[in-house]
């Protein structure tokens, strides 16, 4: 019973203390709410997926063999020599088909493709293509050029 009286007595004392200033002309202290400091939210944009583009691959042609037949023109065997300017390595397991055209032949542009994938060393690109391609020209001085027209995902060969 003495514990109940102490608890009731403490409660009564608290009420008296808080209501003591109710009739006076004093203003209670102002309560100022301060907002919590703003937390910076940092978002990291996902790394874009690797996607080679035609302008990152340049082709030169090496003449492997040329046989000319006077006014009948020439048969020229060429081999492509690609170079790559990717800003990152091809991801492991990915393959891309590079489509290109050889122009300057007698029969118009010749379209072909080769496949690229990641090499075993950093920055290395593996590629697989036909060893030689035959292009007929109208004469021995015709100039052949090669340009990449598209790059598609996967091995489309």
Please identify the structural class as seen in this structure: mainly beta
Q: Which word captures the global form?
A: rod-shaped
Task: Report the β-strand fraction as a percent range.
Answer: 35-45%
Report mean pLDDT, rounded to a whole number: 81
Helix content: 10-25%
Query: What profile does the largest beta sheet have?
Result: 4 strands, antiparallel
How are the strands ordered across the major sheet?
Answer: 5-4-3-7
Distance between the termini: 95 Å
Instruction: Give the low-pLDDT segments.
Output: 1-21
Number of helices: 1
Query: What would you report as the Rg, rounded to the nearest angstrom?
Result: 40 Å
Count every beta strand, where a strand is a DSSP E run of 2 or more residues: 7
The helix-strand sequence is HEEEEEEE
Summarize the helices and strands and which ones pair or pack.
Elements: H1 2-19, E1 57-68, E2 74-84, E3 95-103, E4 110-118, E5 125-128, E6 133-137, E7 145-153
Antiparallel strand pairs: 1-2, 2-6, 3-4, 3-7, 4-5
Structural account:
This protein has one helix at residues 2-19, and strands spanning 57-68, 74-84, 95-103, 110-118, 125-128, 133-137, 145-153. The protein has 1 helix and 7 strands. It starts with a helix and ends with a strand. With 157 residues, it is mainly beta. Strand 4 (110-118) and strand 5 (125-128) form a beta hairpin. It has a 4-stranded antiparallel β-sheet with strand order 5-4-3-7, with no helix packed on it. The protein has a 3-stranded antiparallel β-sheet with strand order 1-2-6, with no helix packed on it.
């Amino acid at each position: 019973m003495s514990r109940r009286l102490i608890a009731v007595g403490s409660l009564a004392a608290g009420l008296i203390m808080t209501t003591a200033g109710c009739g006076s002309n004093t203003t209670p202290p102002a309560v100022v709410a301060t907002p919590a400091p703003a937390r910076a939210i940092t978002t990291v944009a996902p790394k874009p997926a690797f996607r080679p583009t035609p302008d990152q691959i340049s082709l030169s042609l090496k003449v492997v063999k040329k046989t000319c037949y006077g006014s009948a023109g020439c048969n020229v065997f060429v081999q492509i020599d690609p170079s790559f300017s990717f800003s990152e390595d091809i991801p492991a397991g990915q393959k891309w088909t590079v489509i290109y055209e050889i122009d300057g032949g007698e029969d118009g542009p010749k379209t072909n493709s080769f496949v690229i994938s990641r090499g075993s060393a950093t920055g290395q690109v593996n590629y697989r293509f036909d060893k030689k391609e035959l292009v007929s020209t109208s004469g021995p001085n015709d100039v052949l050029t090669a340009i990449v027209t598209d790059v598609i995902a996967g091995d489309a060969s």
